[in-house]
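User: Mind token order:
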Amino acid sequence: MPNTIQTEKIGKLGFGYMRLPKKGGNFDWEQINRMADTFIESGGTYFDAAYVYDGAEAALRETVIKRHRREDIQIATKLPLPPGNSPELLEDRFKTSLKRLGTDYVDFYLIHGIDAKGNKKAEDLGAWDYLDELKSKGLVRHAGFSFHGPADDLEVILHRHPEAEFVQLQINYHDWEEPDVQARRLHEIALKYDVPIIVMEPLLGGLLASGTSPIASLLLGANPDASLASWALRYVAQLQGVFVTLSGMSTYGQVVDNIKTYSDLKPLSESEQATLVEAVGIINSIPRIGCTDCKYCVKDCPAKINIPDMIDAYNIYLTHNTTTNLPQHYMWLTMNSGKAGDCAACRVCEDICPQNVAIVDTLAKLSEMLD
């Protein structure tokens, strides 16, 4: 179907509302207002939230929708598939999002975080038909999905749903050739189906922009005047088919730095590309738990723990050597499944794991940090 997204009217940098700054346990409203205002004044229009991001939709209402002309901004939020066979919850979740946002329509509405299995559930629940219904009523301007899964699954979904107007993909220079993420293939498949791309996690949860990252000295040595984040943002901005790159900005300084990057975008040179290849090698040299996400361990877990996702969360901790971004990620992982602390140490998972991962010990360490 012809795509109706006027990408030229949407700033290429998107403001993700998942990692907003807090003060005393509450949102730092003064700083968020300043961040949003500066972003919009620079030409930014795209704001991204989700039903499951704690407080994000309400924060968008207070800091953006109430304070700026609605026609000047693009609001995106996401529909998480409800547990079980409850199609009536689709409407309930959409109406809840509208109420939280304080708006009568959403510009970009996404089925949240699906793979082929998730798409099958979306089809069984009638989620795709529901999105079409919302569009026909003018409640949603553009409908698509965010994707987490193997590249072959993305091809299945795009083949089955040509009505998807866009797709949100995890793409960054580390994951470009990463066999578990397959960012290059994801990008190629989206281009094959001529579907516009929104990039998420361009900074890999902040790893590619952190001053404590093992690659910080390499990148700063290559260009002391360039921020770490600018390397990653320039990498994805030059990719064909990408019309928005999301950044979950959590300080005013990050907003200013990202605006600076996008105000004078330059393609990466050959030497800069070579530096990023070296950076990937450094990151990959960090010890990680060797889970291959086969999911053999999940089926018979009495606590219904999504063990591969838990191990991935722990790997994020090992890579960052910090728990700063883990609580939000962990909340998302455990919305519809068991927590790490629910593990009964029955070791059924370890008996079946082909990689001989010490799953019980890993869950115990994760639980100690986050439960």
User: Anything to note?
Assistant: The longest strand covers residues 106-114. The chain has a mean pLDDT of 92. The beta strands are 13-16, 22-23, 26-27, 46-48, 74-79, 106-114, 140-147, 167-170, 197-200, 242-247. The longest helix spans residues 270-284.
